[in-house]
Amino acid sequence: MIYLIIGIIFILALLAIRVSNKHGIPALLLFIVLGMLFGAMGIDFEDYQFADNFATVALMVIMFYGGFGTNWKMGKSVAKESLVLSSLGVVATALITGLFCYYVLGFNLLEGMLIGSIVGSTDYASVSNILRSKNLNLKYNTASLLELESGSNDPAAYTMTMVFLSAIVGSKVSIPILILSQVALGIVMGFIFAFIVGKIIKNLTLGADGLYSVFMASAMLITFSTTSLLGGNGYLALYILGIYLGNMEFRGKREIVFFFDGFTEIMQICLFFILGLLSNFSKFIGTFPIALAIMLFMALIARPVAVYFLMLPFQLKRNQLNIISLAGIRGAAAIAFAIMAVNSQGAFSIDIYHIVFGICVLSSLIQGSLMPPASKRFDMLDPSDTVLQTFNYYQNKEEIGFLETRIHPGSSLIGKQVKDLNLTFDFIVAKIERNGKTIVPRGHVTLEENDLIVLGGELHFDETGQDLIEFTIPKGHKWENKYIKDLELPPDHLIVMVQRKGSDIIVPDGNTLLLTDDVVIMIKVEHDIEFSLATDELDTSEQGFNE
């Protein structure tokens, strides 16, 4: 019976996603409502400890993959603004909200501050879901700013929650030491594990590509657990690990993207369903007025005040600040932190879980639904921009690839028009970079010296790697300081790539000079006749680009 119910739940969740895409309602809110409905139908679930453990794992996956999917090149231009909002913005929002709970709603001061801290961060899953499902192409790189902020601000809210929770339960831990260890160790351990895992995966060869996902999941668990055991912020370490690895290129990356795409979706569905199931409808209604008051205060006062004040040095536009303020949607992390507070066995005078639960439900419903029309109202939609504006996004998910090559001095391609290029293979000129500007590669565009050309086409990746030979040229090797054309290679060997320390991968030709510590990748074929035919074809079809 339990398996039948689980199957029905996932089918209903898929239908909820369709409703979300059609009407602009956050899908994750619908998962919560689905959980509440099943609870109202008689499924009795009050296991806060199980919910806490599951929420921890789910947040680990969401935090890691949020970082993994962050394109640093796009986000770098708004990194300062995002990091200020994800740290000081969380602190300011939490403190202002806490004071409101104390002075207006009559909460105990520490409990008010705890509520403010728990709901201090914005929800990455909700923000990203709305931006992508409604294709909100926001001006001034605002989509990247919001995703980077919402993906990185949970650690700050978690640290503040730990601080006020420790004060409430009477922990003897020094608050300054707690804050310092959470932040400092989280950052340090994140970069240490990112460096180690990055080195390993660059040189890792596994029998099946699916095993790369297993390795990545293991690295994620080890990073979080080790950081947490040392007293650091495991979520912060995971986010750093995700950003570092997500902006690297390595074997098996596409399979990791496919795995975590599905796994993250499943974890989000299960998490929000469990959170909805954990709620009691009568308690939800009883705390509804308080939750509504706090949610409206945060949306109309706390978040805008924090955003407008902290963004003063960056001189953002008024309409941009309005959208950033509205995008302060609360979600999964806040409810998970509320469960953690319930499990702390602290003596609370308020129903923390249902107050936070109500705030997040209302925030997702009201703010999430207002995002699309508000973007139009504030003239923030930009048809020339996109939330998917990166070739890497498509390359990691689709059976297409992109090849970059430069038109060198003396090349026979100089002066040719795009329409005259005789591309034997199924490739298209996707983009031309010239003097730092992007040129749309229409047929009449003439190629010039030093143009950077991006070719796009169907991707067929060699998954076996059995024909590849890779080695590093040591000092004193007979190939050291020699040109490839002068090497006495066997007829069935061809050097296809050279990776040089401190520089990019080199596509070799006869005039490529090999240096000490160069990594040389060669292909070895079994029959001389096949080798000869292959090289003849390459010479006739690609000589223009090689020149």
Describe this protein's structure.
It is built from 20 helices and 10 strands. With 547 residues, it is α+β, with helices and mostly antiparallel strands. It folds into 3 domains: 2-26 and 47-377, Na+/H+ antiporter like fold (Up-down Bundle); 398-458, Regulator of K+ conductance, C-terminal domain (Alpha-Beta Plaits, 2-Layer Sandwich); 468-546, Regulator of K+ conductance, C-terminal domain (Alpha-Beta Plaits). A hairpin with a 5-residue loop joins strand 7 (493-499) and strand 8 (505-506). The termini are far apart.
User: What is the distance, rounded to the nearest whole angstrom, between the alpha carbons of the first and last residues?
Assistant: 67 Å
Structural class designation: alpha+beta
Low-confidence stretches: 388-395, 460-466, 527-547
Mean pLDDT rating:
80
Question: From N to C, what is the helix and strand string?
Answer: HHHHHHHHHHHHHHHHHHHEEEEEEEEEEH
Name the helicity range.
55-70%
Q: Mind telling me which CATH architecture of the largest domain this is? A: Up-down Bundle
| Strand segment tally | 10
- Tally the structural domains: 3
Gyration radius, in Å: 27 Å
Q: Give me the CATH fold name of the largest domain.
A: Na+/H+ antiporter like fold
Strand order of the largest sheet: 1-4-2-3
By CATH reckoning, the class of the largest domain would read: Mainly Alpha
* Shape descriptor: elongated
Number of helices: 20
Strand count, sense and barrel status of the largest sheet are:
4 strands, antiparallel
Strand content: 5-15%
